């Protein structure tokens, strides 16, 4: 009995368990090109999109241009509630007009006062010149020419007085004799002419007397005081002039500053009002963005800078997909890609890996990615992969879902078997090869994995068949 048991044990070790070929499916070892493909799902977007932002500061969205339409530069894409800002612009406009009116008033006051100050100085300068001349003439009396003119003036005034006296006497004499009748006004006029002629003669005689005798000390002192006062008045006016002009300029500058302030306030309000109309800065297809995970819709209130739209260039489309960390090391820039869009499921577009993210992004725990025909949890890490699309097509539109198949690696004339035909025992890889009607265990060396198939670099030959259902003992 011991010998039989030993023979059975050796047979089991060499040939494997006593299982018939009918206990599982068999497949032939395949020879041919083996391609490593990584599948991922993403969305189409423009690779040259124009980013459109707004900074609405608590405003409510009241208008949205339809998504998906072609827009041109300058076209209004969105509008926010303008009511309070329009009132503010009106208020600031009125404030600016009032400030400009005050500036005009202050400028006119400055002009008038500058002219008045200049005219006053000119008057004081002229008065000083007169006072100086008078004082000098008093000091230099008598002067021959002045005496001659004074004597002539006295002679003239005497002749005028004689004429006036004769006229008055004639009128009185004729009236007394009754030869002629003169009115009271005519008599009074003759008397007034006589009185004035007498006064002018007295004045001329006084002037001649002064010239002959010279100015008195009191007159000289009065003239000197007048001259000194004129000098002081002029100096004081000139001293006060810069200060007066400074005050006038300060008033104007203050009014100008007020105008500048009002202009700045109006410009800010007008700019905020203009910003409530979001306009296209280029041509393309309008694509809505989500705002903190919520769709863009009317009635939404915004408090911070918001990325509202993209204006997509359909001639430059890309797919942004996410790849699990288990496939990250296989993907490199420049690898060819096959693309299938939901909008055209029967068509295959081509593209190229343009960019692979260097930092993983956290995803929801438990997300399932298909790998090796099994659904396997990949944790919470995924990497963005950007794929450019060759050419352009009407079916390739922003936000359309697309599947990408990245062709990572290929081996020509490779031997391969389904991955379910391989199992591990004692740290080595094994397959069950059909030998007649009985399977035999055979150790193999593996190469690349391609979806549900794996390359066998050593241990199998073309034409051999392997079993798919691995024995239960492989897990022991």
Short structural summary:
By secondary structure, the chain is of the alpha+beta class. The chain has helices at residues 2-15, 83-140, 144-177, 184-213, 217-275, 325-328, and strands at 26-28, 30-46, 50-54, 59-64, 70-71, 76-80, 277-279, 284-288, 301-302, 306-312, 317-324, 336-341, 344-356, 361-362, 368-371, 374-377, 381-389, 401-418, 423-425, 428-435, 438-450, 453-458, 465-467.
Keywords:
alpha+beta; six-stranded antiparallel barrel; disordered N terminus; rod-shaped; Elongation Factor Tu (Ef-tu), domain 3; OB fold (Dihydrolipoamide Acetyltransferase, E2P); 476 residues
Note down, in words, how this protein is organized.
It contains six helices and 23 strands. The protein folds into three domains: 12-48 and 313-475, Elongation Factor Tu (Ef-tu), domain 3 (Beta Barrel); 54-81 and 276-306, OB fold (Dihydrolipoamide Acetyltransferase, E2P) (Beta Barrel), CATH 2.40.50; 90-254. Mean pLDDT is 84; it is low at 1-22 and 364-379. It is rod-shaped. The longest helix has 59 residues, at 217-275. 42% of the residues lie in helices and 32% in strands. With 476 residues, it is an alpha+beta fold.
The largest sheet is: 6 strands, antiparallel, barrel
> What is the alpha-carbon Rg in Å?
59 Å
Mean pLDDT, to the nearest integer, reads: 84
Number of strands: 23
CATH architecture descriptor text of the largest domain: Beta Barrel
Strand order of the largest sheet: 2-11-17-13-12-18
- CATH C-level class of the largest domain is Mainly Beta
**Helical residues, percent:** 40-55%
Total helical segments? 6
CATH superfamily of the largest domain: Efflux pump adaptor protein, beta barrel domain
Shape category? rod-shaped
Helix/strand-derived category reads alpha+beta
From the N-terminal CA to the C-terminal CA, the straight-line distance is 27 Å
CATH fold category name of the largest domain: Elongation Factor Tu (Ef-tu), domain 3
